[in-house]
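During the reporting period the student researcher (J.K.) took over the structure-prediction task from the postdoctoral fellow and processed the backlog of single-chain submissions. One of the processed entries is reproduced below for the supervisory committee.
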Amino acid sequence: MAWLLLFLAGLFEIGWAIGLKYTDGFSKPLPTILTIGAMIASIALLGLALRTLPLGTAYAIWTGIGTVGTVILGIVLFAEPATAVRLGCIGLIVAGIAGLKLTA
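J.K. obtained the following structure tokens:
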């Protein structure tokens, strides 16, 4: 169950990171409220996952999920570059996440 909570926390991290772009400097009320809600949900779920998961592993996986998801959505939604080097680095992050999960 802790791994599911951690995964959901990572998804909410992606949500708030992308949401920041849509708040336009926190000047748009609805995106701002949704972004803050995603921040709270992400931290709360991470906290619940940390009841049983090791801190270093959980934090690294949480930020990794957020990083990979945010980069991919940046490419899809905001036409950010999808160079071979960027995609290779994303692959390295995914490999690191998998390695941490396998050793936890």
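The committee noted the following: The chain is about 85% helix and 0% strand.
J.K. will present the remaining backlog at the next meeting.
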